[in-house]
Structures are given as structure tokens and as C-alpha cells.
Write a structure and sequence with these properties.
4-stranded antiparallel beta sheet; 18 helices; about 65% helix; 6-stranded mixed beta sheet; 12 strands; about 10% strand
């Protein structure tokens, strides 16, 4: 790009020599010789320009690829609380829209931020050599433009920043609508969803419109200054030519140099405008890259989990500062036990078991797995020893086999068959024409809710974990199938600690112990028979579910 600029500023100088020496003295040999150098300079400028554009495009695309990669890798390090802090829609916006805008700025910058300053410097030097005092006009113009651009940048930055935050809300509205389209249509909420979309879209439009209106001043202002500069050069240059202080060829070269100087100023102004528009995106990307995850991977931590015992020691937890979901929890689970957890909605059941796999860290107290604090383990080693089947069952596009291998990528077909049999998923898998090779659509849309739950249980079992946590993961399964799964879990994986969260007492009544949660605390712990005998609430719920009594 520097060579391209050198060739471009050399061309007017050669033209001036052709006019002042070749044409003025009618020296045809000199004209032809200098014309050869003129054409050569033009061709070299073209070659360097093409190469600059090629390398710039490759660098810009590579930069965006690396940036997306680093952002995605960084997000993988986030804990659940970190993702909650940024929100899913915001992270998607940063990985897509924000990166795209930064890429555009980068592609413009690596070319223009080199080309424009170099052109400004070289053209100014050549203009001074050709016109002397006439070049002082530029010393007046450049500061005026710089001040005007800085004022515009300061005014418009706030609008662009607000607009990009609006993209977060926009993506959230679209994402919720598309993922929940069946619910939207079932409740005939299309009108309300359209209004939410319109409001989020109009917010972005309003802020961009305000910013672009301010930026629209840039172009006429630049043109006004450019034409004013040309008029001044014409007037003062003509006077200098008349008195013999300036040659005609030199004046023509000054016109060319002035065009190059003003063009470089306009290009610099465009970069500044683009930078102003992109700065909020840069800040949002930088916020993710510089964010320190709240949960340490603990690379040097313990890599072996001794057994599946779990101890909650005065554990308290809150998702946000000042709030408390769990209060002073004390609970001991022996290795190999089957433990049921039951309680009203919002009582803290899911929060309790999420601390075992260290999806969140406790606010107070400690969680012990295999006799050690979960924070003392290497995070990967801990989670490889704890399988969690969450309330929301997620399958990924691919095949049944590929989804099951999330539990163990080296699992044999025999191992997959056994895990699917325990989870009562084998019958419907075999009903499929391609068996384990059957296609799974995005989100498992071509499987029923109960089938998705059973596939997720099989996937968790393939990890052969020390602890298996099933968070209401048979809620969409009929009671007969639920019973088969429980019987298989007790019969075939009895060395594994099994923690089952359920709203149905029938799903946990044969557990070694049942934990009753209430408002973030443990209300009672005991076997099914013990709780029936002493806990009125548990007995009432049991009678309601089994006999239909009020």
C-alpha cells in the first residue's frame, strides 16, 4: 500500500515535468521517455493496489475467524452464572453482528489507515515542493476538518452504543418466538409477538437514524471544504503563474495533489465514522474476551473421584447478590444410594443438585464429593464423574448414535444398547428403520418428549459416572415406563449413586432415602414409610396422587 501511494504521488510530478519541459520546449524525445515512466508508474500502482486489496481481504476474513474462535472458546469457559450475566441473546449478537462490524472496520482500517496517512504525508510534501507557499492552504483546512469530525464522533457514539444494546433485545425476542412457536400459535399470541418485534426493531431504527442524521453532515461538510480549497488554489495559483512564481505544470500537479490530500482526509473521516459506529461493538467483544470466569477450571486439581458419596455442609446459595435460594443445607448421601428429592416448585431442588456437578459455586458452606470439596477437583474430572440429566432435554442434530456418544465417544454398540435398554429407549430406537443411525433433527424435534428424555438418560449412563442426577427427567414418561427405568437403575447400576428429582412420589418411593425440600431448606429426610408415618404434607401428597383425594 505504501508503494501504491508512492506511485500515485509520483504520477503528477511526472506529468508536471512533461508539461513544463517536454511540451513547453517541444522536446518529443523527453515527452516519450517521461510518458514511458508515467505508464510504468500507473501499472505499478495498479499492481500494488490489487495486491493490497487481496492481502487486506484475506487478513480481514482471517481476523474475523480468529475473533469468533476466541469468543466462542471464551464462552465455553463460562459458568452458568456467567452466561446468565451476559444473557444468551447478547452473546449471540456479539458473536455475529458485532464481529461482522469489527471485521468491516478492520478491512477498511488495514488499507485506509495505512493508505490515507501515507497519501496525506507524501502528497503534502510533493505539493510543498511544487507550490511552496501555496500549500499553506492545507495547513488551514486540515485542523478545521479534524475538529468537526471529533465533535460529530462524540455526539453520535451514544446513539450507536444504544443501538447495539438494542440488538440484544431484538435477538432475544426473535429467539424466544422461534423456539416457542408452537406455544405462540397454541395461545394465538401472534399479534402480541409482532408488537414485541416491532418495538425492539423500532428502538434500533430510532437510534441508528439519529446517529446517521448526524453523520450525514460529514459528506457535505467535506465537499464544502474541498471545493473551497480548490477555489483558493485556483485563485492564488493563477496569480502566482501570472507573476512567474509558479509553472503551469506545477500548478496542475498541485491540483492533483490537493485532490489526493482532500481524498485522504475524506477517507480518514470515513474511517473515523466507521470507528464510531463500531466502537460499541469493539467494547462489547472486549468485555467478553477480558471477562474472568467466576468458576476456576482448577487445572492442577484432583483428577480422580474416589466414590459417589455427597455431603452438603451448611450450604447456602443465591443466584444474585443479596438473594438466597438455599439456606443452611446439611445432607449426607452415601456412595451407591438411591436418593429421591421432592418439593414444591421453587423449593430449590434443581439448584441443590446443580451444586454437585459444580454448575454453580456455593455462596456459603461446601459440597463434598468422594470426600473432597468439589472446588478441589479439576472441573473436567469432576463433571466426567457426575452425569446430569436436566429438566430441559437437549438433543443435537445428527444421529441417535452421535447423540449417545456425547456420554462416551468410544462406546461400543453393545454399550449403547445396554444404556438404551436401562433407559427404556431401546424399543423405539429399534422401531426406527436405521436404528442407532436414525436421524435426529435439531432439538430432537422428530422425537416425542418422553423419547427425548429416555435418550438423554441413556446418554448420561454411557459416561459410567460415580453419580447420576435425574432432574425430573421422566416427567414426560408414562408411569409404567417410569417404573421400568427405576427398576433397571436399581438392578443394573446399583454401584452408582442415583439422585432422582421428581414431582411424583411413585418415581421415588423405593429410594433409600427421600429428601423433602421447602422454600430453600430441607424439611425432612427419611424413607417412604418413615415420611408417611410422620410427615403430614408428604402423606397428603401421596394420598392425593394415588387415590385422587383432596
Amino acid at each position: 500500500m505504501i508503494l501504491e501511494v508512492l506511485m500515485e504521488v509520483l504520477i503528477p510530478a511526472i506529468m508536471a515535468q512533461i508539461i513544463d519541459k517536454g511540451v513547453a520546449e517541444m522536446d518529443m524525445a523527453y515527452i516519450l521517455t517521461m510518458s514511458f515512466f508515467l505508464v510504468l508508474s500507473a501499472l505499478c500502482s495498479l499492481l500494488f493496489g490489487v495486491l493490497g486489496s487481496k492481502f487486506g481481504s484475506e487478513a480481514g476474513a482471517g481476523f474475523a475467524t480468529n475473533l469468533r474462535h476466541d469468543l466462542y472458546v471464551k464462552v465455553q469457559e463460562f459458568s452458568f452464572s456467567d452466561i446468565d450475566r451476559f444473557s444468551t441473546s447478547s452473546l449471540i449478537t456479539r458473536l455475529t453482528t458485532d464481529v461482522q462490524r469489527v471485521q468491516q472496520l478492520f478491512m477498511m482500517s488495514i488499507r485506509m489507515f495505512v493508505r490515507s496517512p501515507m497519501m496525506l504525508i507524501f502528497a503534502s510534501v510533493m505539493a510543498y515542493r511544487a507550490g511552496g507557499i501555496l500549500s499553506a492552504i492545507f495547513a488551514v483546512i486540515i485542523p478545521i476538518l479534524a475538529i468537526a469530525v471529533l465533535i460529530l464522533v462524540k455526539i453520535t457514539h451514544g446513539y450507536f452504543s444504544a443501538a447495539f444494546k438494542g440488538y440484544d433485545r431484538f435477538n432475544q425476542v426473535v429467539g424466544e418466538n422461534l423456539s416457542g412457536i408452537r406455544t405462540v400459535k397454541a395461545f394465538v399470541r401472534e399479534g402480541e409477538e409482532k408488537e414485541k418485534f416491532r418495538e425492539s426493531s423500532d428502538y434500533i431504527r430510532y437510534n441508528f437514524t439519529k446517529a446517521q442524521k448526524m453523520m450525514a453532515i460529514m459528506s457535505p461538510m467535506m465537499m464544502f471544504v474541498s471545493y473551497g480549497c480548490m477555489i483558493a488554489i485556483c485563485y492564488f495559483g493563477a496569480r502566482l503563474v501570472n507573476v512567474g512564481s509558479l509553472d503551469t505544470g506545477a500548478l496542475m500537479s498541485i491540483f492533483t495533489y490537493s485532490g489526493q490530500i482532500l481524498s485522504s482526509l475524506m477517507m480518514t473521516g470515513m474511517i473515523v465514522v466507521m470507528y464510531t459506529m463500531t466502537k460499541p461493538s469493539m467494547e462489547r467483544i472486549s468485555e467478553v474476551l477480558s471477562f474472568s470466569p467466576t468458576m476456576d477450571e482448577n487445572e492442577d486439581g484432583e483428577k480422580t473421584v474416589k466414590d459417589g458419596s455427597v455431603v452438603f455442609n451448611h450450604v447456602s446459595f443465591g443466584y444474585k447478590k443479596g438473594s438466597t435460594c438455599l439456606k443452611d443445607i446439611n445432607l449426607e448421601i452415601k456412595s451407591g444410594e438411591m436418593v429421591g428429592v421432592i418439593g414444591t416448585t421453587g423449593s430449590g431442588k434443581s439448584t441443590l443438585v446443580s451444586l454437585i456437578a459444580r454448575l454453580y459455586d456455593t455462596t456459603e458452606g461446601s459440597v463434598m464429593v468422594g470426600g473432597k470439596d468439589v472446588r478441589d477437583y479439576n472441573l473436567t474430572a469432576l463433571r466426567n464423574s457426575v452425569s446430569v440429566v436436566l429438566q430441559k432435554n437437549t438433543l443435537f442434530s445428527g444421529t441417535v448414535e452421535e447423540n449417545l456418544r456425547w456420554g462416551n465417544e468410544n462406546a461400543t454398540e453393545e454399550e449403547m444398547t445396554k444404556a438404551a435398554d436401562i433407559a427404556s429407549a431401546l424399543p423405539f430406537i429399534r422401531e426406527k428403520e436405521d436404528g442407532f443411525k436414525s436421524r435426529v433433527e435439531q432439538g430432537g424435534a422428530n422425537f416425542s418428549g418422553g423419547q427425548r428424555q429416555r435418550l438423554c438418560i441413556a446418554r448420561a449412563l454411557l459416561k459410567s459416572p460415580k453419580i447420576l442426577i435425574m432432574d425430573d427427567s421422566t416427567s414426560a414418561v408414562d408411569t409404567a415406563t417410569d417404573r421400568k427405568i427405576r427398576e433397571a437403575l436399581r438392578r443394573d447400576v446399583n454401584s452408582m449413586t442415583r439422585i432422582i428429582i421428581s414431582q411424583r412420589i411413585s418415581s421415588i418411593e423405593d429410594a433409600d432415602k427421600i429428601v423433602i425440600m421447602n422454600a430453600g431448606t430441607i424439611e425432612d429426610v427419611g424413607t417412604h414409610e418413615e415420611l408417611l408415618a410422620r410427615n403430614v404434607g408428604y402423606r397428603t401428597l401421596f394420598e392425593t396422587q394415588t387415590r385422587g383425594k383432596d
